[in-house]
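TASK: fixed-backbone design
INPUT:
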């Protein structure tokens, strides 16, 4: 199967390798571009713990001038991917949490003290869940600098457009509602919604799949749980089905 990976460049390599290992041909063309340059500074004075709801939040902290200090603070990490990235970047006190920011809330409440210092959320420019708002309502002091910005792609490359038009792409992987929104927007802008409709769409969650409604895709598969292992189970099943035919 020929699969288009829409993930930002830094995270696409691992996903690509796992798909290739399954026997797929992979095309990487990100729909979100990560920008650390125009982000807010990270000021950790008086902070009791960090919260990371994405790998890029962890990367931003690791590139900060305060990186050595930040690595010593407790870090609440959403999902195994963010936790693994934090571990690889030298963070020492990682609390591995569930795979959504909303589910991470209980971990933070159980393992932090509302009367201690601030919680510092390493946030991106667009948030699907108001974690800081929920914690503030419970009495926590939350700092939420925008430590990276995910910019939407404004166009697709001619090479990818040609392959889609020639039916040389079979499926597309979509990992966030914003990515799916961008995907639909670009399909419309390039006037290829008819071709896009016929692709298989592998979605990390129902919230991602819901964003595809404007193009009404023929095939949408949704991971049982919002993590890469479950998503890759879908692509593995697909290639097994193709092999058995």
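OUTPUT:
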């Amino acid at each position: 199967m020929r699969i288009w990976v829409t993930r930002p460049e830094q995270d696409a390599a691992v996903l690509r390798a796992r798909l290739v290992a399954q026997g797929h041909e992979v095309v990487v063309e990100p729909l979100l571009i990560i920008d650390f340059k125009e982000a807010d500074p990270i000021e950790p004075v008086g902070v009791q713990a960090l919260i990371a709801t994405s790998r890029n939040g962890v990367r931003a902290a690791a590139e900060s001038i305060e990186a050595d200090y930040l690595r010593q603070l407790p870090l609440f990490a959403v999902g195994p991917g963010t936790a693994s990235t934090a571990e690889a970047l030298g963070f020492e006190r990682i609390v591995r949490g569930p795979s959504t920011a909303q589910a991470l809330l209980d971990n933070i409440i159980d393992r932090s003290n509302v009367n201690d210092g601030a919680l510092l959320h390493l946030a991106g420019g667009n948030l699907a869940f108001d974690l800081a708002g929920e914690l503030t309502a419970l009495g926590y002091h939350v700092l939420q600098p925008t430590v990276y910005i995910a910019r939407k792609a404004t166009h697709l490359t001619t090479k990818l457009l040609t392959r889609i038009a020639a039916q040389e792409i079979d499926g597309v992987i979509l990992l966030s509602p914003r990515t799916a929104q961008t995907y639909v927007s670009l399909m419309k802008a390039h006037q290829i919604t008819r071709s896009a409709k016929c692709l298989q769409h592998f979605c990390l969650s129902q919230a991602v799949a819901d964003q595809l409604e404007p193009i009404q895709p023929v095939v949408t598969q949704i991971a049982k749980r919002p993590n890469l292992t479950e998503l890759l189970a879908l692509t593995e099943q697909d290639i097994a089905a193709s092999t058995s035919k």
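COMMENT: The CA atoms of residues 37 and 109 lie 32 Å apart.
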